[in-house]
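In this section we walk through a basic example: taking a raw amino acid sequence and producing a predicted 3D structure, encoded as discrete structure tokens. The instruction is simple. Fold the sequence below.
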Amino acid sequence: MKKILILLTLISISSHAQFGKSMFAKDPIVNLENFDKQRVYWGYFLGFSSFDFKVEYKTPGQDINVVANTGFNVGLVGALRLHEYVELRFEPGLYYASRTLTFQGFTNDLDALREVKATYIDFPLLVKFCSLRTGNVRPFLVGGYSATLNLSSNSKAKEDNSEQKFRVKPWTQNYQLGFGIDFYFEYFKFSPSIRGVFGLTDELIRDNDPNSPWTGNIESMKTRAVLINFTFH
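The resulting token sequence is shown next.
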């Protein structure tokens, strides 16, 4: 995640450098002056993500160590302007993610380790709150609800952790909160943003044995994620 944050910072610095003179000049050149007057507009995003699990236990003690790995995001954007400062956005996207889970109490890696890979199709409905535009810069806040389909859930598998098969539910529900900045260039708008994803539903499928050493003590397992998206309109 440090590398991702450094990359985001460098892109922001580069963006400022490219049109800093027009931004802070006495009479700045305003790019895409009529862009925000559009009722509907479209775009796409590319980005990075780090998916984690928030685990709650029935009995504290043997916690699961979850290591989040960096993933890749790509998707489309549709925006409907409701007000000068408010937009309704639909941002369906494809997210590739993985987590490494280490279970306590086992003496060999075959039982202790589970690499949980996921291919998510996310369907978020978001509200974007924009500030007053200053030159070619406009900060914003964004938040909303999303339903996510995990194509790699293993939900139909009969095998469980006793046969090295970790299973989760195919559909989950989340809410998202984040912030970003719109940069207006001569021919397009570039919007880097950072967003948190917070799972609302338990997505773990328990093992067949209710006293399973892998899932028997888990009360709930919900997604947590950080998304860094670079959006182009």
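Looking at the output, two observations stand out. Residues 10-20 have pLDDT under 50 and may be disordered. The CA atoms of residues 176 and 197 lie 5 Å apart. In the next section we compare this with other chains.
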